[in-house]
Design brief:
Number of strands of chain B: 6
CATH class of the largest domain in chain B: Alpha Beta
Order of helices and strands of chain A: EHHEHEHEHEHEHEEHEEHEEHHEHH
Number of domains of chain A: 2
Strand order of the largest sheet of chain B: 3-2-1-4
Radius of gyration of chain A: 22 Å
Shape of chain A: globular
CATH architecture of the largest domain in chain B: Alpha-Beta Complex
Strand order of the largest sheet of chain A: 2-8-7-6-5-3-4
Strand content of chain B: 15-25%
Order of helices and strands of chain B: HEEEHHHHHEEE
Number of helices of chain B: 6
CATH topology of the largest domain in chain B: Sufe protein. Chain: A
Oligomer: heterodimer
Radius of gyration of chain B: 18 Å
Number of strands of chain A: 13
Helix content of chain B: 25-40%
CATH topology of the largest domain in chain A: Aspartate Aminotransferase, domain 2
Number of helices of chain A: 13
Distance between the termini of chain A: 41 Å
Chain lengths: 390, 173
């Protein structure tokens, strides 16, 4: 029996058609899209086709799509590029406490360069309050960067509301939509954002490639300086193999989403319900309805996440944890702490992210083995003392 | 995570899990903020550890370390047991990943704490277990400081922009 992969947020497997298209590209096209000759032209065509495919997924104009090396670069470009591009206008940036590290650490860099950052608290569901955003705006504010979907607890932020406020105050709005794009409908017109980051490895495309949506008229300085590629926004010869994969993955996500979404939501509901029924003293994190359809974050009292993850791994079930122990930084998740969890409970957090290949049987296997694993670890835990007090 | 086969064995089949209700000494170290918390219980007869059990809240490494320390301590005299170091435990486990050496490798500390508790009780100093737990709450205004020039630096910064030195990536509480 193969493994049950429930860590699609770390990376999705390549869609078979994406893999096929990438191999076809490797075997048939090698030119530089910037070369105006018969070798370069097929490359240029592949590049522009992928751009149109990504634009269609976002309801954007192809000219507004800039290819990058992934979500992290897109976010860095949006945040730092806007900060530099609008430096004459102001130096204040608004964000939330539960952003991805690519946002938080881009802002860390900007603080060294005398930008000021307001980082907003979230409620226990992880929601940012649009009124708090508006209150934080000053004449110096140049950028608001709030994520569309949180990558640890799945909560969907009220981006359209916040973007309306940003527009009213003539502030640029970026949303890190890496965890959402290709999973749920993401429409840049409906959202009203100026900048949006996405990555192919969230929707069955390859890792190491992504895109930044840049609305027309954005004052965005390049992150990578060099040649004139990507309409002068992103220098360097394109990762065309990856971009071809991203393009097709975007098209497949758009076409298959009506089938994928209800399946994922049904599996998620089954998993959430089963966990709640079968394991006492757990907490399901994130918003109960305004949430990604494929993510379940669960915090288990009295035990630590990495040991849960290892024991599930033994059973052939691959999940992620947000415990400090499993992170490089040895800190509890800033997202879970930001949403008000205590350190001990945050340590016991598992994140399941479902994918289109998962089945009800996969979910049932988790529900069959996890209660026993939790009990084994609880009996080993000094924090679990029911036998003493009981 | 790159755990050795010995670590994985002790994680999957931990030895001596549990509590000793009439323990002669109890040691508790760590806290959930750091990720790991260990309790070690010992029975002592004529200065020799006759039984030892543990309870641990923590990652795979922490559980394996706890299991290993109980095996290493059982049957040893108190003096011998006091000489076991955290590094000895890590070595007996075939090594631990570098980022686990500081936080999870608390087995010897927990054992020594239990022995100290036993000796204190014997001397009539402490009836209850000696809880060796720091409160460990992050203070407002607390931050990260460069270990070389001691200027305040950004969290998780790879280098100090004041002195230019690389900041070691490890547990920084």
């Amino acid at each position: 029996m193969g493994v049950i992969y429930l860590d699609h947020l770390a990376a999705t497997p390549l869609h078979p058609k994406v893999k096929e298209a990438m191999i076809h590209h490797i075997e048939n096209v090698f030119g530089n899209p910037a070369s105006d000759n018969q070798v370069g032209q097929p490359a240029a065509q592949a590049l522009e086709q992928a751009r149109a495919q990504v634009a269609a997924l976002l309801n954007a104009d192809p000219k507004e799509v800039v290819f990058t090396s992934g979500g992290t670069e897109s976010v860095n470009h949006a945040v730092k590029g806007t900060a530099i591009g609008l430096r004459q206008k102001g130096n204040h940036i608004i964000t939330s406490n539960i952003e991805h590290k690519s946002v938080l650490n881009s802002l860390r860099t900007l603080r060294l360069l005398d930008y000021r950052v307001t980082s907003l608290d979230v409620d226990s569901y992880g929601l940012v309050d649009p009124a708090a955003v508006e209150k934080a705006i000053t004449p110096e504010t140049i950028l608001i960067s709030i994520m569309l979907a949180n990558n640890e607890i799945g909560t969907l932020e009220p981006i359209a509301d916040i973007a309306r406020i940003a527009q009213k105050h003539k502030v640029v709005m970026h949303t890190d939509a890496v965890a959402a794009t290709g999973v749920i409908p993401v429409d840049v017109q409906a959202l009203g954002v100026n900048l949006l980051s996405l990555a192919a490895n969230q929707f069955y495309g390859p890792s190491g490639v992504g895109a930044l949506y840049v609305r027309k008229g954005a004052s965005l300085w390049p992150l990578l300086d060099g040649g004139l590629q990507e309409n002068k926004r992103r220098a360097g010869a394109e990762n065309l193999i990856g971009i071809v994969g991203l393009g097709l993955a975007a098209e497949l996500a758009r076409l298959e989403m009506p089938q994928r979404l209800p399946r994922l939501q049904a599996l998620k509901d089954r998993l959430t319900k089963g966990l709640t029924e079968r394991i006492p003293e757990i907490k399901i994190n994130g918003h109960p309805t305004q949430c990604l359809p494929h993510l379940v974050s669960v915090s288990v009292e009295y035990v630590e996440g990495e040991s849960l993850m290892l024991m599930l791994d033994e059973e052939g079930i691959i999940v992620a944890t947000r415990s400090a122990c499993a992170s490089g930084s040895l800190r509890a998740s800033h997202v879970l702490i930001g949403a008000g969890l205590g350190h001990a409970l945050a340590q016991g957090t598992l994140v399941f992210t479902l994918g289109m290949d998962n089945t009800e049987a996969d979910v049932d296997k988790v529900l069959q083995v996890l209660p026993g694993i939790v009990q084994t670890l609880r009996e080993m835990s000094p924090l679990y003392r029911t036998e003493r007090t009981g | 995570m790159a755990y050795s086969p010995i670590v994985l064995d002790h994680f999957k089949n931990p030895r001596n899990v549990g509590e000793i209700l009439q323990a002669d000494g109890v040691g508790e170290v760590g806290n959930p903020v750091c990720g790991d918390m260990m309790s070690v219980y010992i029975k002592v007869d004529q200065d020799r550890i006759t039984d030892v059990k543990f309870k641990t809240f923590g990652c795979g490494a922490a559980i394996a370390v706890s299991s290993m320390i109980t095996e290493m301590a059982k049957g040893k005299t108190l003096a011998e047991a006091m000489k076991i170091t955290n590094a000895d435990v890590a070595a007996a486990l075939g090594g631990l990943p570098p980022n686990k050496l500081h936080c999870s490798n608390l087995g010897a500390d927990a054992l020594h704490s239990a022995i100290k508790n036993y000796l204190d009780r014997k001397a009539g100093k402490a009836a209850a277990p000696d809880l060796d737990k720091e409160p460990h709450h992050k203070q407002e205004g607390e931050g990260c400081y460069c270990p070389y020039c001691e200027k305040k630096v950004e969290e998780e910064a790879p280098m100090c922009i004041f002195c230019g030195r690389e900041i070691p990536h490890e547990h920084d509480h």
